[in-house]
Structure to design on (607 residues):
């Protein structure tokens, strides 16, 4: 199916152009063929409409003969051949119509003009179709690039988290086998949930919370008494459908740039509630103000934070936002707001 | 001092530095299986590490990189260069830096006992090498400075004062004065001595903010109040607090260039 039929505005514009072509054709028939105005108009209408559709056919040929990968001579020969064929058919149709309308006066004089116009229009159509294809290709490339980026970001399991967790399991294996087993189960649970997410457009907020819970359970074993977690999740939020891995990277940042920088550790507070169809999420953690963590430098602000922000923007545009604040007493606070969409 | 060759019969005294209790426990468990090793200290952060290494003077330190307070490289800068260091981390991207800073080995978590024995053998070999005076022509700070990625400017300078560590944010630094093998870091309130050459420090600081005005002086541009003639052929820089510092001919040329650029 030609893309022009998929958009009404395009089709209307094209038919308008065809109408304009019909007017010019009528003038040509009147002047060169010395036909009366009514007869000229009667012939020009159907002929222009017919050729308007003929000029859509290069779409298929242009797709079969992509520029750059096809030999230029082949492109030229194929298109010229079809141009001659199309023009020939059109001129024959014109003569047939003329005969039906029983106008023979000066009809022969029009034929060279019709042939020239037919060839030119066909070639113009070929050029326009190649332009259309190029536009489509660039748009698709942009979409694919963005999709690939999103997939890569979604599928990222921090390898250092994995290696450190495995190291903890190695440590527990001899001293505390039940705990080692527990850690294996938690880690598997977390990995299974995360790895399955690459394919999904959205998950429920409840699933995201479970993922974060599994993540924090593992980190609590690693950090021991240094990591405290307080989660307050309003049950009404659970049904909201959200892009996956919106909260987990924020919590991972809180561990990495917050708790891990403090000698005595600290508390991560996660709070989420639903208010008038809007999902509000807060993540808070303490940090060491002297740590060389580059969070104050915008450019190097955590990749995770930027990733979440980009994905909010892609999914919800201006109706979602993510704000970060730092208080005097060294608390880093993230506020994330997004529309809660339920069902599919 | 741990200086002087370690005899094969001697017990290796080690310190374990890691912020994760389980990681420390695992390493201790491995090490205690080897009768020729004695764990002298266990530390959970950079400050503790510098303090413990200064006090206990172990032969070998197992050092994590990402820790509270000081990272592994900063700890390395502050300890006796004769102490052998094995980095233990889950991150593989610091290996080059680690070896440039003369680390004995680089263990990636999780690792097995056999890999650890290999690292210990290397450490014993390194420690058994004859270490005549002057075997460390440059201090650890120099090595660590050289190992820093060139595009990464220093955000803070770490200084050791006995077993105590000071962190001097680069933004608080007014000027630096060379004193033999040491540099004296002057801030508004205090000054700190650090074993490092002024050239090495200069290489780590942002050249848009710090100018070497003299063989022995490195100054933050913003603290300069004015430049005054001193004698027929020389000049001094007067800082905002009134301190006067000599300016060499090349130093003056550099200053003019930078100030010209700025205004």
């Amino acid at each position: 199916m030609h893309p022009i039929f998929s958009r009404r505005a395009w089709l209307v514009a094209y038919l308008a152009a065809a109408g304009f072509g019909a007017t010019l054709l009528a003038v040509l028939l009147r002047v060169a063929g010395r036909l009366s105005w009514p007869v000229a108009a009667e012939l020009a209408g159907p002929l222009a409409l017919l050729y308007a559709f003929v000029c859509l056919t290069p779409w298929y040929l242009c797709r079969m003969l992509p520029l750059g990968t096809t030999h230029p001579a082949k492109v030229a020969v194929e298109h010229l051949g079809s141009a001659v064929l199309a023009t020939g058919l059109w001129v024959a149709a014109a003569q047939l119509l003329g005969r039906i309308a029983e106008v023979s006066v000066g009809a022969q004089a029009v034929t060279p003009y019709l042939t020239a116009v037919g060839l030119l229009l066909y070639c113009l159509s070929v050029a326009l179709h190649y332009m259309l294809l190029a536009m489509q290709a660039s748009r698709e490339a942009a979409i694919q690039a963005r999709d690939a980026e999103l997939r890569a970001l979604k599928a990222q399991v921090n390898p250092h988290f994995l290696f450190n967790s495995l190291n903890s399991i190695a440590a527990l294996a001899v001293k505390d086998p039940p705990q080692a087993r527990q850690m294996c189960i938690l880690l598997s649970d977390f990995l299974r949930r995360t790895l399955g997410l690459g394919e999904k457009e959205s998950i429920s907020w409840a699933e995201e919370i479970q993922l974060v819970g599994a993540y924090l359970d593992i980190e609590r074993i690693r950090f021991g008494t240094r990591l405290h977690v307080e989660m307050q999740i309003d049950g009404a939020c659970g049904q909201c459908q959200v892009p996956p891995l919106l909260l987990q990277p924020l919590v991972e940042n809180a561990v990495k740039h917050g708790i891990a920088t403090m000698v005595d550790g600290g508390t991560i507070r996660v709070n989420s509630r639903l208010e008038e169809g809007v999902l509000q999420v807060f993540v808070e953690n303490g940090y060491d103000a002297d740590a060389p963590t580059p969070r104050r430098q915008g450019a190097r602000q955590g990749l995770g934070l930027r990733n979440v922000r980009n994905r909010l923007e892609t999914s919800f545009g201006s109706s979602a936002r993510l704000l970060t604040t730092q208080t005097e007493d060294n608390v880093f606070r993230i506020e994330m707001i997004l529309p809660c969409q339920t069902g599919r | 001092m741990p200086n002087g060759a370690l005899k094969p019969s001697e017990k290796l005294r080690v310190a374990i530095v890691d912020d994760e209790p389980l990681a420390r426990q695992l390493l201790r468990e491995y090490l205690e299986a080897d009768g020729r090793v004695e764990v002298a200290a266990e530390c959970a952060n950079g400050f503790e590490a510098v303090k413990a290494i200064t006090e206990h003077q172990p032969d070998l330190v197992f050092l994590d990189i990402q820790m509270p307070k000081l990272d592994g490289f900063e700890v390395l800068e502050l300890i006796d260069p004769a102490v052998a260091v094995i980095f233990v981390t889950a991150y593989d991207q610091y290996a080059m830096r680690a070896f440039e800073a003369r680390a004995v080995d680089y263990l990636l978590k999780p690792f097995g006992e056999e890999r650890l024995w290999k690292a210990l053998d290397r450490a014993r070999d390194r420690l058994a090498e004859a270490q005549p005076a002057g075997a460390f022509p440059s201090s650890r700070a120099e090595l660590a400075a050289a190992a820093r990625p060139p595009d990464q400017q220093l955000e803070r300078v770490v200084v050791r004062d006995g077993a105590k560590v000071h962190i001097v944010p680069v933004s608080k630094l007014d000027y630096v004065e060379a004193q033999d093998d040491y540099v004296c870091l002057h801030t508004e309130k205090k000054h700190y001595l650090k074993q490092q050459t002024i050239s090495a420090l200069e290489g780590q600081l942002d050249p848009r903010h710090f100018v070497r005005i003299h063989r022995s002086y490195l100054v933050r541009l913003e603290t300069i109040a004015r430049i005054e003639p001193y004698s027929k052929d020389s000049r001094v820089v007067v800082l905002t607090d009134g301190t006067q510092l000599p300016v060499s001919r090349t130093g003056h040329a550099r200053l003019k260039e930078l100030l010209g650029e700025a205004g």
Remarks:
- The radius of gyration of chain B is 21 Å.
- The mean pLDDT of chain B is 87.
- The first helix of chain B runs from residue 21 to 32.
